[in-house]
Amino acid sequence: MPWYFYLALKQLFPTGRRVTFFTAVSIMGVAAGVWLLIAATGVMGGFGHKYGGMMRDTQGDIQVRSYELIRDVAATQAAIDATPGVLASTPFAEGLVMVQYENRPSFPAIQGIDVNQVGRVIPLANYLVIGSLDDLDDDTVILGAELARTLGVGVGGKLQVVTPLFLQKIGEDEILLPAELTVVGILQIGHQQLDKSVAIVTLRRMQDLYGLGRGVHGFSVKLAPGADLHQTVAAINDRLPPASRAHALTWMEANDGFLFSLRLEKVMVMLITSFIVLNAMFLVTALLLIAVVRKTREIGLLGALGALPRQTAACFCIQGFLVGVLGAVLGLALGFLTLGNIDGIFKFVGAVTGQSDTLIEMYQFIQIPAHITPGEVAGISAYAIVMATLAGLIAAWRAARLEPVEAMRSE
């Protein structure tokens, strides 16, 4: 072991067992920054990961939509299914309706699905907490859990459903009675907004409610394993019939505005939190500079004994590096411990403040998600270690400039 590395260890841990005040404060400063960066990145990454999973599960990997109603459904779907990389597709129609149960109204989004095909593309069955997709027919409906709770309706309840077509018929001096649908299932996706604003019916019923005839609004598409998302989208667009005026979008493109806001929020949170590590760098710099001043005579003695300036500098630079490594390790441990218990922490804060419902409404999730990639962990660790090493370089530069004779004469 080089003598300057050994000396750096002895200055950080003088007895080999006891941690000095300087060492403890420096390591905790770096650890606090890494801890908060891991926690903030994990939570914000969890939102993005959770939203992404929900979007793919409820919309498919790719969506094919048109500027107008797609009437030649069979030809358009055949073109989609024949595209390399496509595993399956299913048509859908969607809109807004008013539903009423015992004089309690609500205005959810409603989607019509092909019960025979939807399972190959969208795993709706995984989110059903009551009922089954096999129970869904033209006279029934599946509701989101929060929507059912708001209406006070359960399985077997009968809803009155009114669509814009109802108002159109009134304007044409025709009477269209509200549709009556029986609730046969409850769906819980886990996102507050979706669970209180979604109703699912069969595609035929949706076409009747909106007067679409045989037309649909689009198709949800599932990729085959290993298929490239963007290449498949381009291939689908090349095959779509021009008359349909349809175009394919990836799930990311279809939700680009929302995903961009999530990415921007994540970057801003990481940027703000990273200043804690920057503050720890100044703390390490100050404490190492104090050590240089206190050990001026010892530094001069090292020079008189033949130590090169770069070896003296390395002693303090290594101290900064070791503080960064130990701080990063401790910060990672605290960060992963926090992410592993983030939902419990969230519930504890909500219980203490009495704002559990407010926090759920704000973040829209019943459980707070957490997700962080190995690359993000490596980047945060490297950032902390590099910053701590740079802090040591400043003190090392000061120590390397000391002349042995002048340093030994220092009082």
Describe the structure.
By secondary structure, the chain is α+β, with helices and mostly antiparallel strands. The chain has two domains: 3-51 and 258-408, no CATH class; 86-223, no CATH class. 56% of the residues lie in helices and 18% in strands. The protein contains 16 helices and twelve strands. Strands 1, 2, 3, 4, 5, 6, 7, 8, 9, 10, 11 and 12 form a twelve-stranded mixed beta sheet that branches. Strand 3 and strand 4 form a beta hairpin. The chain is elongated, with a radius of gyration of 31 Å. It starts with a helix and ends with a helix. Residues 403-411 have low confidence and may be disordered.
Q: What is the radius of gyration?
A: 31 Å
Structural class: alpha+beta
Write down how many β-strands occur, each being a DSSP E stretch of 2 or more residues: 12
Global morphology = elongated
Alpha-carbon distance between the termini? 32 Å
Tally of distinct domains: 2
Uncertain runs are 403-411
| Overall residue-averaged pLDDT value | 78
Helix content: 55-70%
Q: Into which percentage range does the β-strand content fall?
A: 15-25%
SSE run? HHEHEEEEEEHEHEHEHEHEHHHHHHHH
Major beta sheet summary: 12 strands, mixed
